[in-house]
Amino acid sequence: MEEIELDGKRPDITMIVGFKDSKKTKSELIAIMNKMTHLKLDNKKLDIVDNLQDCTSLTTAYLQEN
What we know:
Elements: H1 13-17, H2 26-35, E1 38-40, E2 60-62
């Protein structure tokens, strides 16, 4: 079975952790993302939200107005 490719705007690392933290090393980013419980992605004009697998503690994602 062929995997379906979805097109659209996805959240990038800057949207997830913020501009300042996005400049940190990969291991630091993963540590930050593992601690996150809430994520605000509202009003970002996102089409697809599928790359949050490193946010293991995430319980709430705010996605209004997307």
